[in-house]
Amino acid sequence: MTAEKAKLNIIKVGGNVINDAETLSGFLKDFAQLKGAKLLVHGGGKIASTISQSLGITPQMIDGRRVTDAETLRVITMVYGGLINKGIVAQLQALGCNALGLTGADMNIIPAQKRKPEPIDFGFVGDFDPQQINTQQLSTLINQGITPIMSPLTHDQDGSMLNTNADTIASGLAQALSADFEVALVYCFEKSGVLRDADDDHSVIPQITPEVYQDLKDQGVIFAGMIPKLDNAFGALNSGVSKVHITHAEQLLSLGEKGTVLCQV
Ligand SMILES: Nc1ncnc2c1ncn2[C@@H]1O[C@H](COP(=O)(O)OP(=O)(O)O)[C@@H](O)[C@H]1O
Ligand SMILES: CC(=O)N[C@@H](CCC(=O)OP(=O)(O)O)C(=O)O
């Protein structure tokens, strides 16, 4: 008989939540109260753009995605790996949560490759294979009661950091850590879930299957950043993650009743 795996909650919090200090601290209070083993992945695209601009570097976007040139890589390494990550760690420590801030380069957790420049050159952006994620030391830390706080940075194994989407990191970590834990993955953002009308927070779709997802995409109900988020979310569900939720950052402690749950069929 195989032993039951311990439960692990992997929570991803997005840029619009992090951008507002009050909303972020409310979310972190709830996160600190979440029982059991947990790991937080943070984004921070909005703050990166604001700080870039204040340094005189105009953020460059193609199809809504950041182009990370050498100067931008320096900024995002400071902002994601430093300012945001350590700010969250300090707040969680004050709330009695033993947080440890990490990038994908630390302990070689997420070895990645710089994306090829064709057809679009996004610069220093990293892609990785979830099967290459090194979970052994991360799992040991989690089992010791440490709460890892992961920033959206990987490395190219040749001395350079790389910018990597936070939703993709959350999905990849959830898949890899499913070997050691029963993982629930929760995407927290500034809306109540996946909505039938993106401007109406009362129009939450409680459950989404791949078929429903395809229909909603075809109808234009799901668009922009919600498409890669759901692709990452279904990717996790198809690769060993036991449950995936998409919900408002204020609803972290009431997942059973609120937000959207993904289903395989
Ligand atoms: N059906 C939908 N329901 C909710 N949000 C949607 C929907 N379709 C598109 N969106 C957009 O997706 C965005 C979330 O994706 P994104 O901006 O990448 O979030 P984050 O930065 O938290 O990862 C929302 O802010 C919203 O504008
Ligand atoms: C390559 C890539 O997409 N990098 C993202 C990383 C931050 C992120 O994912 O933040 P949110 O979760 O707040 O969107 C970027 O620089 O915008």
Automatic annotation (TrEMBL):
Phosphoprotein keyword on record: no
Residues at which substrate binds: 44-45, 66, 163
Enzyme class: transferase
EC number(s) given by UniProt: 2.7.2.8
HAMAP family linked: ArgB (MF_00082)
Domain Aspartate/glutamate/uridylate kinase: 8-247
Function: Catalyzes the ATP-dependent phosphorylation of N-acetyl-L-glutamate.
Name of the coding gene: argB
Catalytic activity, as annotated: N-acetyl-L-glutamate + ATP = N-acetyl-L-glutamyl 5-phosphate + ADP
GO molecular function, one term: kinase activity
Protein keywords: Amino-acid biosynthesis, Arginine biosynthesis, ATP-binding, Cytoplasm, Kinase, Nucleotide-binding, Plasmid, Transferase
Family in the record: Belongs to the acetylglutamate kinase family. ArgB subfamily.
Annotated pathway: Amino-acid biosynthesis; L-arginine biosynthesis; N(2)-acetyl-L-ornithine from L-glutamate: step 2/4
Protein name as annotated: Acetylglutamate kinase
Pfam families according to UniProt: AA_kinase (PF00696)
Annotated site residues (Transition state stabilizer) in this chain: 12, 229
Main localization category: cytoplasm
Superkingdom of this protein's organism: Bacteria
Protein source organism: Persicobacter psychrovividus
